[in-house]
Each structure stands twice: as C-alpha cells, then as structure tokens.
C-alpha cells in the first residue's frame, strides 16, 4: 500500500491552509494577455510611491557583498532603530518581515497545549501560526468590525499564552485609542504575552493613538511588532522587527534563523530610516488617497469601514467575487476578503491619485454591470 505522506505531517500542519496573498501583476498579465504596465495592484497594502531613493542607493551598494553572509545580528539596523525608538539594541528582534517575527513569537511561547487569543476579522497570520503549532486559536467575535478588547481580555484562561492585537487592524482598518489599549493591557495577567502588531502605526494621525514602544516599561509582557513593508516602502525585501523586554528578545533571538534578514534588506532598511521626507510623503499620499476613496464610496452610496491604515474595506454586496473579477478584467487588482469571513467586502489599498481614480471608475462600471449601482 502506498504511504500517504501527507498524513505524516504533524497534526497542526495537516489542517493548515496557506496564506492567500494578493494576485501578482505578472500573473494577471499572463492570464488576461494584458500589458503588465497597464495593470494596477491595490491588493497588498504596498506603498504606491515606489521605494525611497535612499533605500535604493543603499541596496545597490550592498549588492557587491552578495557572496558574504549577512550580519546575523543586524548591528547597523538595530543601532538605527534603537536611536530612533529610544530602546536598547537588546530589545530588538529582526525578522524576515514581521510575519517571521509573529511566527517565531508563537513557536517560542506557545505549544499544542496552549490557547492563543485574537479577534474575528484580525490579520490572517495569527490563526495561521497558531494552527501550525497545533495550539488552540480562540477567535473573539468583533465589535463593529474592530477588536472587542473587553471580550478578548475575558477570553484569557489559564491556558492562554499569547494575545494578538493589531492596531490598526488589517483588513478592517479599525484602530483603538491609547486609553483603550492601556485599559486592556491592565486586564491581561502578567504571564500572558500581548503582541501589539503596529504594522500601520506610521499612518496614524492624531495623538489619541498608542505608541506601543512607550508602553513597554509599564507592561513587561508586551511585544510590539513593526514592519518596513508598508509606510517605509520595502515590502519586497522582507524586514520587520519586534521590540520587547531584553529577556523576551533573548528568547526570540535564539529561535529565529541566524541570517533571517539579508544584506540588501538590512542596508536598505537602515538607509530608509534616514529618509524622513519619504515617510512624510507616504503619510500625505495616504491621507489624501483615503479621503479620495472614502468620498467616492460616499457618493456611490457604498458603505465602508472607516480606515486608519493604507487600505479600506468597502462593502459591495453578495456579488463581491463578481465585482472582483470585473475589476481584474479592467486591469485593477484588489483583495477579496471572504477568507476573513467578510464575503460582502473587498479591500482596496490606497494608491496614487490617478490609480485611485482608475479603481473608482472601474468599480462604478463593475457595479453597474452587476446591477448593484442602485
Ligand atoms: C502587512 C502586515 C504585516 C507585515 O507583514 P511583513 O511580513 O512585515 O511584510 C504585519 N501585520 C499586519 C496586520 C499587516 O497587515
């Protein structure tokens, strides 16, 4: 009898379904015979500005070192982050994207006997990394699409090892104030780690929102995760990091791959931290683009979840997949989020003004075609 090799996989992995990324431009071009230059991708919350010139220049220079292993400690990048964030270098753990850090955290602090708490509609990676180690994921029903922080605190049991909080959250764009996050943290037992995922924190405007790093002194069970993939515009290079107590960082650094961030990525990320002008432009383009999209939805009578990120989830109704397909045919890639339990919504990332406009026009046509415009 032939062996079913899939049955040999460890239990958590057998039940795993892989992360569904946004459709790549090249793939759509192949499928529809379109010119890749005419396709716009507003599907993965990428920075529409293109990379920072400073990052590009540093990346080019790093190419001459391709035959050498990277600095496994990421000294220069950690030093730059440590200055910028006013934390010790020993509090930082670098990752191959913050996804890598989220996974390492889970493997370090939870196992098959643990419970891991996250919100309904929260970032897909939390249930995924939980499932991979066969821990029990506890998905807490959302409140108005956002995290119900009170219910999440109540969901903590003596088996809970980790709680994931995305602030702002992807794909809903919901955000909690500093006050709400602090009162939540006060309710979580000290031996339960809270992962505050701040992938979109650079886009926040207004001082009512928390800076996770400032909470670390008061909440030693806190781990803050951030990324270079969004506002810093380096998604392809895969660089993310966490900031925690030195004790937690020491554990994470034992388990991460020794060279998990490559030389080009380290150099570009270190350089982009000097490009304050780029960051400001990222924010400005995002603020204007969010307004452009949300105003258009208002005009079209579509409801959407007001977003604090660089994307918006808009409700297009039962035929969301049809609308998605129709947008693809117009060369516009957005993200269906039925996999998040939001089958009536599509998530669109903020693009440049002309990209947003093209999306809005294509959406209007798609809705007319599916008879949903009225
Ligand atoms: C995009 C995103 C990340 C970051 O992913 P990287 O692996 O750093 O590219 C983390 N958390 C959330 C909620 C995100 O949306």
UniProtKB/TrEMBL annotation:
Main enzyme class: transferase
Q: Which reaction does it catalyse?
A: L-histidinol phosphate + 2-oxoglutarate = 3-(imidazol-4-yl)-2-oxopropyl phosphate + L-glutamate
Superkingdom of source: Bacteria
**Keyword Transferase attributed:** yes
Q: Where is the Aminotransferase class I/classII large domain?
A: 38-363
Xref: Pfam families: Aminotran_1_2 (PF00155)
* Assigned EC number: 2.6.1.9
Query: Partners and quaternary state?
Result: Homodimer.
Question: What is the protein's given name?
Answer: Histidinol-phosphate aminotransferase
Instruction: Report which gene this protein is encoded by.
Output: hisC2
